[in-house]
Amino acid sequence: TTSMSNTIKPNSRQNTLSYKACPTGWRMFMCSCYLLSNESGSWARGREDCRNRGADLVVIDSTEEQTFLSDLTMVETWIWIGLTDKDNEGTWKWIDGTPLTLQYRSQPDNGGGDPKWGEEDCAHIRTGKKTEENWNDRSCDASLRWICEKKA
């Protein structure tokens, strides 16, 4: 008689689970990994830090992703995202070149045109608030935390 182990050859590919994981300290949502910075700095500093980690500032593609980001912290925290109108005032674009389509409470608004706010060319979210209340634009030199995103 022939034993079962001699007739069936194991296929290592079938026995290996294929899954994506995020680096330590990063949080997964859908197919991306997210890292909330511990430090604060300008929008450009945040983007530089993300790029050094093989990522970039977050591009928010859906209300589901927005809700996930809003829930990252329990307390209200202002956090840079990858949205700016530095190239052309009033034309908001994500850092990947896509135009802004998801928008909340008429933000970003360049300080409502009030000169006391100066140029507000970079966008941030306010975590710990209702999703529809958490977008805003500020001076790119303001010191905020940031969220990096990279594919899992």
UniProtKB/TrEMBL annotation:
<dbReference type="InterPro" id="IPR016186">
    <property type="entry name" value="C-type_lectin-like/link_sf"/>
</dbReference>
<feature type="domain" description="C-type lectin">
    <location>
        <begin position="29"/>
        <end position="149"/>
    </location>
</feature>
<dbReference type="InterPro" id="IPR033989">
    <property type="entry name" value="CD209-like_CTLD"/>
</dbReference>
<keyword id="KW-1015">Disulfide bond</keyword>
<protein>
    <recommendedName>
        <fullName>C-type lectin domain-containing protein</fullName>
    </recommendedName>
</protein>
<dbReference type="InterPro" id="IPR050111">
    <property type="entry name" value="C-type_lectin/snaclec_domain"/>
</dbReference>
<dbReference type="InterPro" id="IPR001304">
    <property type="entry name" value="C-type_lectin-like"/>
</dbReference>
<dbReference type="Pfam" id="PF00059">
    <property type="entry name" value="Lectin_C"/>
</dbReference>
<dbReference type="InterPro" id="IPR016187">
    <property type="entry name" value="CTDL_fold"/>
</dbReference>
<dbReference type="InterPro" id="IPR018378">
    <property type="entry name" value="C-type_lectin_CS"/>
</dbReference>
<dbReference type="GO" id="GO:0030246">
    <property type="term" value="F:carbohydrate binding"/>
</dbReference>
<keyword id="KW-0430">Lectin</keyword>
